[in-house]
Design goal:
By secondary structure, the chain is α/β, with parallel strands linked by helices. Helix content is 30%, strand content 28%. The protein contains nine helices and 19 strands. The strands form five sheets. It has a six-stranded mixed β-sheet with strand order 16-15-14-17-18-19, with helices on both faces. Helix 1 packs antiparallel against helix 2. The longest helix has 27 residues. The two termini are 42 Å apart.
Length: 391
């Protein structure tokens, strides 16, 4: 196209020189003809834009990241003139079209249409446009072109995918860790409580059972910690979708993967995250088992991220309320690690709690966990390492 415009420009200059020195009807005719080319091209492009039609259909507006969704588009000429030089361009930042035809210029006769069936895949969780984003229309000489946005762009709401893990690289034997029993407690140290589902028979106090007429379990002083907590960051780290969407998507994927893994291993999980609509600013919930996963997944799909989130303040309130003191293990899923968060993890480690930190960042986070004698109880790992082979 640049070459053709260059040739046109040279011809126009030559015709201008000719009429300047020699004149003549033919020379003036050629000059005015070349001068009118841009105007005719513009009118032609405008005409094509007014009478071309693009129809798009997607299989569903609510989809899951990473899954193929049926998609087709129709390009149609609804005028009485032939069209030449129409190209289509697709959204490519957050989704991609599979089996996309080679970049071609479509030429359509009056009333003719072109239909192409394929599928597309969304990369990240969120709401954004998919399919055809814009068309480029060129004149029939191939000299000029104008790019037009599609009048009715298609949007989808993509949910994070649910990843199944066979193991956690951060805690290789989590089931054994969560089921440890304190076998050194003597009768003098023991108080009793009503038997609860999941208690070992070794914990049953038969004397108390006979006295109370119901199963009673030993409750050792300083009873072993049970269960896990999951705290994830909902701070929006940028105003640019191309920056925050991948990060938010990765945070929710690791949250879902951890929750599913814990549920499969019968580990109860308490989860916490910031939500501005609540008076306290902190949303808290419980995940008891696989039966709760579907409801939990629906909640995660609706989680909102906000630039005003105070992650440090939320963590301090959670600690002050003592909501983490009885947990054997606490997971943090953050968009970055900093010294303030590290101090909070040390408080938990001093309480004999294992802390696992995931940070969706390109920075080296392991250095945060080598500055204290408690570093053996604080593990830093990237989501890419934890989810290696399944992402």
């Amino acid at each position: 196209m640049k070459v053709r415009r260059g040739i046109w420009g040279i011809c126009w200059l030559l015709s201008l020189i000719v009429i300047s020195f020699y004149g003549g009807t033919v020379s003036y005719g050629i000059f005015f003809g070349l001068t009118l080319v841009p105007l005719i091209s513009f009118l032609y492009i405008l005409f094509v834009w007014m009478f071309h039609r693009i129809y798009q259909e997607i299989g569903s507006r609510n989809i899951v990241c990473g899954r193929s969704v049926p998609y087709y588009f129709v390009l149609k000429n609804e005028s009485w003139f032939a069209f030449a030089g129409i190209k289509v361009f697709f959204y490519s930042d957050f989704s991609y079209v599979e089996e996309l035809p080679e970049e071609i210029e479509y030429e359509l006769l009056p009333g003719e249409q072109y239909k192409y069936e394929t599928s597309f895949v969304c990369k990240y969780r969120g709401e954004y446009g998919v399919g055809i984003k814009a068309v480029v229309i060129s004149d029939f000489w191939g000299l000029f072109s104008i790019k037009f946005a599609v009048r009715e762009a298609k949007k989808v709401i993509a949910a994070p995918k649910l990843i199944q893990l066979d193991e956690l690289k951060s805690v290789m034997d989590i089931s054994a860790m969560m089921q440890r029993e304190n076998l050194q407690t003597t009768e003098l140290d023991v108080v009793t409580r009503e038997y609860a589902s999941g208690d070992s028979l070794k914990q049953v106090n038969w004397k108390a059972t006979a006295r109370e007429g119901k199963l009673m379990s030993r409750k050792p002083v300083g009873e072993e910690k049970r269960g896990a907590a999951l705290i994830f960051d909902t701070e929006r780290c940028s105003k640019k979708p191309e920056v925050y969407l991948p990060i938010e998507n990765k945070i929710l994927e690791i949250v879902l993967a951890l929750s599913l893994f814990m549920s499969k291993n019968n580990v109860p999980v308490s989860f916490f995250h910031h939500q501005n609509s609540l008076q306290t600013g902190i949303r808290q919930g419980e995940l008891g088992g696989l039966g709760d996963i579907e409801e939990f997944y629906e909640q995660i799909k609706k989680v909102g991220f906000d630039t005003n989130t105070d992650m440090q303040g939320d963590l301090l309130r959670i600690l002050q309320d003592g909501l983490l003191m009885d947990k054997a293990i606490v997971f943090f899923v953050l968009h970055e690690m900093d010294d303030e968060v590290l101090k909070i993890t040390y408080q938990l480690a001093e309480n004999d709690t294992i802390v696992i930190c995931y940070a969706v960042t390109d920075e080296n986070i392991e250095e945060f966990c080598t500055m204290s004698d408690l570093s053996r109880r604080i593990i830093a790992i990237s989501p890419e390492e934890e989810l290696e082979g399944v992402l």
